[in-house]
Amino acid sequence: MNHSTLHGAALAILFPLIAIGQSNTNAPIDDPVNYVLWNAAVVESVAERLEEELGDKALVWETIGNYAGHSVYLVLRGKTSRAEIHDTESDVQISIRGSAISIVGGELVGAESLPRKQQRGTSIIGGNRQQLTTGDIMHIPPGVAHQLLIDSAHPYMYLLIKIDEEPLQ
Fold first, then answer.
1. Alpha-carbon span 14 to 96, nearest angstrom
2. Who's near 113: CB < 8 A, 6+ residues apart?
3. What's the per-residue H, E or C state across the chain?
4. 39-67 pLDDT tens trace
5. Tens digit of each residue's pLDDT (9 = 90 or more) over 67-85
6. Phi, psi of 85 (to 5 degrees)
7. Burial 42-51 (b: 16+ CB within 10 A, else e)
8. CA angle at residue 53 from 74 to 39, to 5 degrees?
9. Strand partners for 113
10. Number of other CB atoms surrounding residue 98 within 10 Å
11. Domain annotation for the chain: domains and CATH numbers
12. Cα–Cα distance, 111 to 143 (Å, whole number)
């Protein structure tokens, strides 16, 4: 499947979900434990707040939820951050706004071990570079170096789902 087909598939998945969130805003829902619905209006409100909060920071985020085995965040990056590897966690990123260049794979330069079975480094040697834009979905498996290169004039927002996340402390 080529990039434009994947992009189209991502949009085909995302837009109905947004429409469902908008149409069911006032629908009665049994309130199961840990159930969360962020409809499009709420996401837009949080996105605007994050954009105001970003300033000259590298990133800001809003936690949607921390659950057994996974967490969900809305992330806004304003600058390129350090490269990283998660030894046990997978990341799924869904592009919401803006664009970035993703580097995945290769070798972490200047690797430093951190808590929660993570490593951070200054950059990546090698790896695959891909342009990410609105609607793109990316899965990064455990043990794979990754980094997002950000044009500081154009912040990049994405939904981050961390799978098998190490417990937050």
1. 10
2. 119
3. CCHHHHHHHHHHHHHHHHHHHHHCCCCCCCCCCCCCCCCHHHHHHHHHHHHHHHCCCCEEEEEEEEECCEEEEEEEECCCCCEEEECCCEEEEEEEECEEEEEECCEEECCEEECCCEEEECEEECCEEEEEECCCEEEECCCCCEEEECCCCCCEEEEEEEECCCCCC
4. 999 999 999 999 999 999 999 999 988 88
5. 888 999 999 999 999 999 9
6. -135, 135
7. ebeebbeebe
8. 35
9. 119
10. 18
11. 3-163 (2.60.120.10)
12. 13
pTM for the structure as a whole: 0.79
Length of the chain: 169
